[in-house]
Each structure stands twice: as structure tokens, then as C-alpha cells.
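Render this sequence as a predicted structure.
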Amino acid sequence: MSLWDRLSDGVRTALDRPAGAAQGALSDRLNLRALSDEVLRAELERRRRARGRPAHGRPAADDELTAMAQARRDRMRGRSVAKCYALLELPVGSPRTDVQRAFRTMLRQYHPDRYVGDVEQHASAVALVTSLVEAYLALLAQHDRR
């Protein structure tokens, strides 16, 4: 018996238990007994495709994610460590705990969710937080190399 068969049997068994004496089984109320395994598989596949994921579960936009990661690495290469410390408002050579504390404090202060109503401020907060994250990651990588 395959995993899918065991899972579907378990779900059907759980759905057959009555939620309340007067209401009957959930599967009867939702008319799930009429669905076959093939219909369930087709519906799951349709939903996966609607979310942009193929059946094997990997994201459909692997190339796009790789390109974004490469662009981030390129931006971080051009930024000096001193600029990263300055962006987090720390003196050069601060310990890792100070870097983490400053990052979290500034992220709380400038988080884009604080500016949901104002489109302009929200966009600038997104840009600032992106640069903060890149600086933070660069400093963490530098501390790990030590």
C-alpha cells in the first residue's frame, strides 16, 4: 500500500467520524464520498500548479531565485565592511552581539509593515531594510571568517 493510499484512507476514516450526533459525518455533509482517488490527485495537482509549484515540490522559478541571489552577492561585493558598519550605525570592529542587536533594533524601527498606509514611505522602508539585511549578512559572514 502506497503512502498516498494510506494517507487517503486515514483522511477518509477521520472524516467518517461524526462531529456531532445530529449533524452526521463530515464526509457526508461535504459530499466527499463521491470523490475518487484520481479526482483527489487531479485536484491536488491543479492546486500545486496554481501556486506555481510542479508535482515534485520544487519552486517553479529556480532560475529567478538563482538570479536574485547572484545579484545580491554582486551588490555585497561592492560594499566595504566599513560601509556595512556605518549603515548599522556601529563602530568598525564591533562584536557580533552588537551587530545583531543593532540590526534587530533598526529592523524594528524601520520595518515596512509600520508604513502600510503610505506608499512612498513603505517603498523607502523596503529599500532601507533590504540594505540593512545585506549589510547584516555581510558582517555576519565577515565574523564567521575570523
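Summary. The first helix runs from residue 3 to 16. The CA atoms of residues 4 and 98 lie 49 Å apart.
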